[in-house]
Amino acid sequence: xxxxxxxxxxxxxxxxxxxxIEKTKNCQTVEDTYEQFYCENWPRKALRDGGELxxxxxxYLALNLATALAGFVVxxxxxxxxxxxxxxxxxxxxx
Length: 95
Fold this sequence. Notes:
This protein is mainly alpha-helical. The chain has helices at 11-23, 33-41, 43-49, 57-94; strands at residues 4-8, 51-55. Helix 1 crosses helix 3 and helix 2 (33-41) runs parallel beside helix 3 (43-49).
């Protein structure tokens, strides 16, 4: 999951995207496959939706911090829990 936030298109950004679409004749004149993919999936989608999804750095950092913290708690908990369980049942097996 990538943290993103929706931002509406400004009038200037909408003009630029429209000009790009017109310049490429609705993505028909691009030659490069990467540019073809970009043209079909970015400007047309942004114009259709009326905005763009933008990457949110604070949400990304918060999500990564929470994931790292959860991983640490799980590993740290298992490091203490597994030896205690093993000692208890090892004695039980040897009696």
